[in-house]
């Protein structure tokens, strides 16, 4: 259990560091969603 918590904390810190802010994380998720939507639209045509 202790290793799981340590790995979760490490993953969370890396995610925050990569995005720098919660706002940055929101933009990252939004960008990924837009890419999926664009791909789906292209597949329909």
Q: Please provide the ordered H/E string of secondary-structure elements.
A: HH
Strand content: under 5%
Computed structural class: mainly alpha
User: Segments where pLDDT lies below 50 for 5+ residues?
Assistant: none
Alpha-carbon distance between the two ends: 49 Å
Percent range for helical residues? over 70%
Please characterize this protein's 3D structure:
The chain is mainly alpha-helical and 45 residues long. It has helices spanning 2-19, 22-44. It is elongated and about 50 Å long.
Layout: helices, strands, pairs:
Elements: H1 2-19, H2 22-44
Helix pairs in contact: 1-2
Tell me briefly what this model is:
The chain is mainly alpha-helical. It is built from 2 helices and no strands. The chain has helices at residues 2-19, 22-44.
Features:
45 residues; mainly alpha; 2 helices; 91% helix; 0% strand; elongated
């Amino acid at each position: 259990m202790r290793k799981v918590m340590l790995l979760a904390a490490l993953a969370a810190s890396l995610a925050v560091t990569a995005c720098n802010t919660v706002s940055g994380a929101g933009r990252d998720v939004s960008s990924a969603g837009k890419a999926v939507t664009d791909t789906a639209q292209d597949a329909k045509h």
